[in-house]
Amino acid sequence: MKNYPPEFKVDAVALYQSRPGAAIRQIAADLGINPETLRNWIRAAGASRPRGHRAEEPARPPVPLEAENAALREKVRELEEERELLRKAAKYFAGETRW
After folding, report:
1. Cβ burial, residue 58 (10 Å; 0-12/13-18/19+)
2. Which residues contact 19 (CB under 8 A, 6 or more apart)?
3. What's the domain count of the chain?
4. For residue 72, is it within any domain?
5. Fewest 10 Å CB contacts: which of 19, 30, 82, 90?
């Protein structure tokens, strides 16, 4: 049984929350962990995915270019979070393989 650092667990749950379209199985595969392990961490954290609209959304409908820019900014943020989490995972697993 593998032991994961607490910050890795917290980051994995945060990644789950930040990717509303992704399944637990997909996120777990990206991190190289068992889907049930990730599911248990999510339950233990009492985490859920955010629902509804954000308070800072404008009252008027955005023009297509603004909507596209907002979607791209969100995607960049998600990818940066994923990259950081994968860096931490790689660092953890690299340290685990040394004797």
Report:
1. exposed
2. 27, 78
3. 1
4. yes
5. 90
Q: Which single residue is written with the structure tokens 């954290």?
A: 45
Position 96, amino acid: E
The model's pTM: 0.51
DSSP one-letter code for 46:
T
Which pLDDT tens digits describe the chain residue by residue (99 residues)? 688 888 999 999 988 888 888 889 999 998 999 999 999 999 998 876 655 444 344 455 656 777 788 888 999 999 999 999 999 989 888 887 665
Structure-token match 């399944």, residue found: 23
Does 53 fall in a domain?
no
Q: Is residue 36 part of a domain?
A: yes
